[in-house]
Structures are given as C-alpha cells and as structure tokens.
C-alpha cells in the first residue's frame, strides 16, 4: 500500500483538480478526483456525464481539472469512452480512458450504457462516485439513495438501494472495487491496480463520496462520515477479480458484526436521517445484511 | 480517366453504402441493427471479421450508444461511421445534436423509414426531417450509384476545415436499400486520393488538457452557434466544388446542391427529393410530351439549404409543385415551407404549390405524379 507521505508527495507534484474549482465546502467527490487522478499518472482522459463534476470543473480558460475532459450526454459516457478507447488503442495506447460519473448517471439513466460497455469489456476504468442522490440538481432521490434518507423528492423510502458494484460483479467484469474518500491510500491503490494490472479490460470502481450539502452534514465531517460508513458495516471495502471478492485490509474486520460501530450514531451526524422512522431503519439494517451476505457468498477461498 | 478499369456490380442501396464505407476505412464503426438499414451493419461487421477491413466494429447496445461511440472516436481524432433508420435515428437524437453542435465531423447513413405508431417499416422522410436542426448536413440521394458516390463525397466535405460538421446521407428505405441496380466503384487508390486522411482540427489528449463541452456563458455559446451557421454557409461552396471535382475525375455529376433535369425552358417545375425526384423525371418527360413543359428540380442538399440556387431556378417557372414525403404537422411539408421562404428572400413570385405524397411507404409511380401535377395546375 502507498504510504501517506508518498501520496502527499505525488499529489504535490501533480494536482489533478486545481485550486479554485467550484466544488462545495467539504465535497467528497473532489477528494476522490484528486486521489484518482494522482494514481493515473497523467495518462487519464475523463469522460464526464451530467453530474457534480460537470459543474465543479468550471468554465473558460484555466478550468479546474488538470486532465482532458469530454462532457457527454447524461446516459452516453460509457459509449463515448468506448469510442475514445477504440481509437487510442491503435493511435496511442498510453491514454487511459476513464468515465467519471455520479450515482444517478450510473445506477439510473446510464445503466444500459454501462452494461453494454462492461459486456464488451471495453478498455475503460469506470468510476462511480456515489453521493447517493442527484446532488448536482439539488438532492433528488436516485436508485442509489439508501433506505430512510430524506431527499427533495422523497421523505424516506423502504426500498434497498441499487448496488451497481454487485451488478458489475455479476456482469463478469474483470476488476470491481469499492472505495471511500475517507480511505485515500486504499482508494489510490485500487485506482493504481485497476490502471496497471488490468489494462485492456473494463474496470469498475465505486467510491463512497459524502455530500455535506445534500446530506445536511457539517462540512468538517466529510471524512468522519465516510470513515463511519465503513466502520458501521454500511460500506464494505473490497476488490473483486473475476468475480472473487477479497476484503480490503482497512475494512476487513467489519465482516464481524460485533466489531461494527453504532449505526444510529453515524446516522445522527447526517441531517437526511434525522427523523428516520423505525421501519426505514430496519430496512437499512436489512440492506447492510444483504450486502454482506453477497460479499461472503462471493469471497475468494 | 477512360483508361481506368472500374468494377461494376449489381448492388442494393445498403450494399452500395457499405461498399463506400469499406473504401473510406473508418477507425470506428458503431451500429445498432434496425430495419431497413441492418444489412449495412452486417456487411461491415463481416468485412471486419474477415480481416478485409481494419476498423474497430463496436457492437453497441443501442442507437444512443452508437452515436455516442462515434462521438468519442471523432473527439479522439478518429474517423467514424454509423447507419440507422426511423426510431433508431430518434433514439440517437440527443447525441445527434451533440455531434452537430459539438462540431464532430462524421458520416451517418440514414435509410429513411416512417415513424411509429402504427408500425411501418417503409419509406418516408419524417425521421431525417426531425433531425434537420441538429447541425448536420443532409444529403438525399435518388439512386444507389448516388448513395455510393455521396458517402465518399460526404467524408471529404465533412472533414474539410471550412465545413467541419457531420453529414447524413439519406436513402429511401426498400426503394433503394433493398433494390439492386448497377453501381460503378472507384478504385481504392481513387478513393484514397479523393478523400485524404482525416486531419482533425482538435482532439482530446492528456498531453494538452482541455475541456470539451463545459459550461458556456451566453456570449461563448452564441459565438459557437454563429460559427456553425457560418460553416453551413461555407459548406455550400465546398459541396459544389467537391461535386465538380468528382464529376471531372469520375464522370458523374449529381448537381452539387440541386439537380435540374428536363427542358431548359420548362414552365412547370416539380421540386422534390430522393427517389421521388427520379420518378418525377419520368413524369416530367411525359408531361412535356403532352405539351405541359416540365422539369424536375431535385434538392440534393437539404442542409445546408440551397435557398438562393432554388429561388433562381424556380424563378424560371410559371408554377412549381413541391412534393414532400414528410409533414410538419400544423403547417405543411418541410420542403414546401423552406422553399416558400427562399422565394420570399430572393423576391421570386412564381406560384408555389405544396403537396405531400408517399408517406408511410405508399408506392408512388410516375403516373401518380403526373396526375397530381395535372390536378394541382388545373386548380391554380
């Protein structure tokens, strides 16, 4: 694993998302972008559908991302990226095409396009930064919104959230990983591994990216909320190679429910769960249990 | 040129298009099957599989993704091709506009087919007419030879730095796509000499980080759209020049923007497009024999729209009948609307009558056109 000191040095020499971009205070996705781009060693070409990243990159000269960005139609990114990847495969194989998309663009409107690119095993790293609702347009419910979370279009729902990572594992995607902005070293390593070890294949990384503005969280707690998502067992950290899951070192112990921290304490930090009803809380617990059952079932021997 | 031995084959419209595309050798071909354009995808995929064609064939999961893949390919500096029809073109629509407004030159063959509901797999022009404002050039061809020639010309025109926007080559479903007629090929050397390698004005690459399609302020947005409008204007000359160069080299002249067939001093004009125009040529000949001197003015380039050339030609007629194969509901056929506006722009007072024929695949023979022209001129 990369050392903290090393990551600091790498990010001091190459800044992927520059100062003065338009991210909100405490933005989780902005951290994710910084670490991800650092791992890709200035070879990344980003394809970005409508999402917070379309906004935070800013406009005009001196825009805020130090990498080429193609802004695509909402549901089109994996296919646009396929076109880039097919041309650069022959013309310049050093280019790593990356789709950088939110949860709405991935779990909802872009799901068929994602499925197609995954099935074709396109040479793309797909990053879904999950801030669990349509945050760019102001926190509307998406397919990835967890049970009980209040959004501007829902007062909390019982249905489990749609896990695109699990869907990608069952799609037969070569490399699937979950990551979290509160674990930058783990995130960096996974991006690096996807880039260096599984080149030529479709790779999918889902990053938990807290959204203080949308979740009604104090911006200083972005890392804390992210860390607790892992420590409560809500967000298992793993890698799956050819469908076989290996738990990541930093989150491995939370396989044991006894080691997990209090779900209620974590929810209390987030305004969106402030008045969570008991039946929604129960649905959230069941969703967590379900995701661990899947992990256990697909764990490498 | 007479010394060059060229191959002549009996080809359907779909075969003619795929033959041209094989010689153009795009970097990326992304196609989703839809009747009546499917054969184009099949033949190109088979050519790639057989190693005859060194293109990346992307078997996408939708038309929306077919166009998106072409968009990515061109933004990477590659040459791209797709083919579709009807609902497929409409499903692509969001990305059709993205490619047009994004100034990504490529060629799409659109096999014209009516829109549902009721399901109809047969020809009319409602599909491409729905895309007329997408920032694409639109050619409508009258036969399979022109389909072949126009695909080749369209790449040369689209990739010209004075033009630099994508083009559709529209051919009538079944009437052309599934009907064979003789097509003369250019040699591979001729195609490569006529259409030089794609020299992109810009491409995205990590060596020079920049953003494509970021948030744009109104003044920037307006500047981009004005530039597209100016490029459309410039394209008119490029289309004519390319047509002349093609005619000189290969002996076939499709008229450039418009094609006029019939007596110079015709009193009646039939203004239409595609296979209806070729059918109208027979009708005009017959009408002229009967004493109603008639010629056909065929619009080959609907975008850019040749308003000036049309007005000039129509000013020679006493009366002109515009036949549309599509309708702008609540108004009239699109060719009629736009031709009418061109006559006003250029102070032409020729009597213009619009009529709609052949939608939903209704078979139109020259006799039907003769009858319609007689009825309409009688009333006028």
Explained architecture:
By secondary structure, chain A is α/β, with parallel strands linked by helices. Chain A has a single domain (4-297), classed as Rossmann fold. Chain A contains twelve helices and ten strands. In chain A, the strands form two sheets. Chain A has an eight-stranded mixed β-sheet, sandwiched between helices. Chain A has a two-stranded antiparallel ribbon with strand order 5-6. In chain A, helix 2 crosses helix 8 and helix 4 (77-91) packs parallel to helix 6. The mean pLDDT of chain B is 97. Chain B contains twelve helices and 15 strands. Chain B folds into two domains: 8-250, 3-Layer(aba) Sandwich (Rossmann fold); 258-379, 3-Layer(aba) Sandwich (Rossmann fold). Chain B is globular, with a radius of gyration of 20 Å. Chain B has a seven-stranded mixed β-sheet, with helices on both faces. A five-stranded mixed β-sheet of chain B has the order 10-12-11-14-15, with helices on both faces. Chain B has helices at residues 13-24, 38-49, 63-75, 86-101, 126-129, 144-159, 188-194, 218-250, 274-289, 307-314, 334-345, 366-379, and strands spanning 8-11, 28-30, 56-58, 80-84, 107-112, 137-140, 167-172, 181-184, 211-212, 258-261, 268-272, 294-299, 301-303, 319-324, 351-356. In chain B, helix 1 packs parallel to helix 6 and helix 6 packs across helix 8. Helices cover 43% and strands 18% of the residues of chain B. The interface between A and B is large, with 47 and 41 residues.
Helices and strands in order:
The complex is a heterodimer of chains A (301) and B (380).
Chain A: H1 4-13, H2 28-39, E1 44-48, H3 52-56, E2 69-71, H4 77-91, E3 96-102, H5 103-108, H6 111-119, E4 124-130, E5 150-151, E6 154-155, H7 164-170, E7 175-180, H8 184-197, E8 203-208, H9 212-215, H10 222-231, E9 238-241, E10 244-247, H11 263-268, H12 278-297
Parallel strand pairs in A: 1-2, 1-3, 3-4, 4-8, 7-8
Antiparallel strand pairs in A: 5-6, 7-9, 9-10
Helix pairs in contact in A: 2-8, 4-6
Chain B: E1 8-11, H1 13-24, E2 28-30, H2 38-49, E3 56-58, H3 63-75, E4 80-84, H4 86-101, E5 107-112, H5 126-129, E6 137-140, H6 144-159, E7 167-172, E8 181-184, H7 188-194, E9 211-212, H8 218-250, E10 258-261, E11 268-272, H9 274-289, E12 294-299, E13 301-303, H10 307-314, E14 319-324, H11 334-345, E15 351-356, H12 366-379
Parallel strand pairs in B: 2-3, 2-4, 4-5, 5-7, 6-7, 11-12, 11-14, 14-15
Antiparallel strand pairs in B: 1-8, 6-13, 10-12
